[in-house]
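Pasting two entries for a bug report.
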Amino acid sequence: MGLLEAHRAMAGKIAVVIGGCAGHIGRGVTLGLAHEGVRVIACDNDREGIAAIVPEVEALGGTISAHCADVADEASLDAFWDAVAAETGRVDILVNVAGLVERNLFADTTRALHARDIRMNYDYIVQSCHRALPLLRASGEGAAIVNFTTIEAHRGAATFAVYAGAKAATTNFTRALAVELGADMIRVNCLASDTTLARASNAALAAEDFARLAELGEDALNKSIEFYVPQKRPPSVGEVIDGLLFLVSDLSRTVTGQTLHVDGGTSASWGFLDWPEGDGFMPAPLGGTLKKLQG
C-alpha cells in the first residue's frame, strides 16, 4: 500500500483520543487525525482546551465531539466511555495520550503521589482499553490502539522512579494485549517520545531547574539538547504526530506489540552523550569537559 492510499483510507474512521484537547501533544494528535479526515471523539480535563479544539477541528473540515473527563477519576473516565458508546457503534482508533510527569527523589515522595503517577501513566490506560474493546471489535475489520509512553520506560530514570515504572508497565501491557488481540487484527503499539516542546509544560523539570537554566541565557536548554540528542535537536510535535499517524494507518498493518521511539536517537544512544571540549560520545565526561568544569 502506498503512502497516499494509506492516508486516504483513514478518512471516515472514528478515533477516540484520551487527553486530546489540550497540551502540545494531545491537541496535536486530535488535529493530526482530523486533518486526515478521521472523526474524533476526545476527552480532556482542560475546559479551555475543550472549547478551543472544536473550532480548530471544524476549520480543517473535520468533525469532533469533545467531552470533559478526568482520567485521574475512574467514574469520570467510565462516564466518558458511556458517552462514546452512546454516540457511536464502533471505534477504529484509540489513542491514550494523557499522562503526568514530575521530577522528585523517591525518598521525598508520598504514597498519594505514587498512586497518582500509577493512575495517570498506567491504570487509566488499562481501564480505557478495556472499555474500548467491544467498540474496537465491532466493525470486524481491525483497529489500532496507540498508548503514549516514554524513553523512561526503558532505562533507570532516577528522580522519575514511579513514573518510569508505570510507563514500563504500560509498555509491557501493550505487548501482551497485542498478542491477545492479534487474531482480531487489532494492533496495539506504543509511541515513546523523549524531550519535546511539550516537556517544558508538564512539570518534568522543577521551577528551580528552569531558573538555573535561565541564568545561563535563553539558549542554554538548546545547548544541553545538543549534548543529549544525537540529531542535535528534539523532535517537533509535528514529527511525533507523524509517528502516530504511521501507527494508526494501514502502512503499519503488521506492526503490533512494538514501541516506536520518536526521539532523535536518544534511545539508541543509551547514555552516550556528546561531551564538549573534544571528549565526544562517552557515557561520562573525559579530560576536556572535566578540565572545563574545574576551571
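Entry 2 (this is the one that rendered wrong in the viewer):
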Amino acid sequence: MPEALVLDADAVLWSTDRSAVEGRHLLLLLHGYGADEHDLYPLRQYLPDAFAVASLAAPLAPPWPAPGRSWYPIDGLDGRDSSHVTRAAQAVIAWIDEHAAGAASVGLLGFSQGGAVSLQAMRLDPRRFAYAVNLSGYASPGEMPQDAELAELRPPVFWGRGTKDDVIPEVAVTHTTQWLPEHVELSGRVYPGLTHSVSEQEIADVAAFLDKRLTALDGAGKV
C-alpha cells in the first residue's frame, strides 16, 4: 500500500491566525497542477469576509521542469486513476483532523486538480463538508463507498468551466455533467470563451454562491 501523503502545515497560507479557526466557517483553497498555495490565495479578497481561509499546498512535486506542486501525478496512462485522487483527498481530511477540527463548518474551493480532490474528499466523508466549489475540475470516475450517502445528503456544489478549456478531457467533462446532478445540489455555469482559467464573472458567481452558503449555515445554527 502506498505511503500516506502528508500536507505541509507550515506552507499553508491563512487569512487569520490559525488559532482563531475554532468556531469559524473555514474555506479551504486547493490549487491546480503546477501551482502552489499562493495561486488561489488572492481570491480571498473577493469572497465573504466571514470565512477563515486556508490555502493548502499540494503534497507532491511534479516532474521537472514543471513548477509548483501537484495533488497527484498526471503523467503516464494512469494519470487520472481515481486512487491517486483519493489519496490526495485523504491527505486533506487528515490535515483538517489535525489543524481545523474545531471549525464550525468546512467548505472546499479547488481549481482543476484541486477541484477533483475537493469532490473526492466530499465523497470520502460526505458529512464533513458543507459545500464544494469546483473550478475547471471534474469528478473522478468510479464508485466510492459513500456515494450513496452523498446522494442522500446532496450537499451544494458549484461547478464552473469554460467552453475553451482544452485541458480537461471531454470524457471527464461528460462524466462530471452526468455524475454531479445525481449526487449533489448542483449550481454553476459554463463560461463562453473561457480557457482553463478563472474569470471575473466566475469569481462573482462563486462569491454569490458562498454568500448563500453562509446564510444557510448561520440559519441552521439558530435552529
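Dev reply: Rendering is fixed now. As a check, the viewer should reflect this: The longest helix spans residues 200-221.
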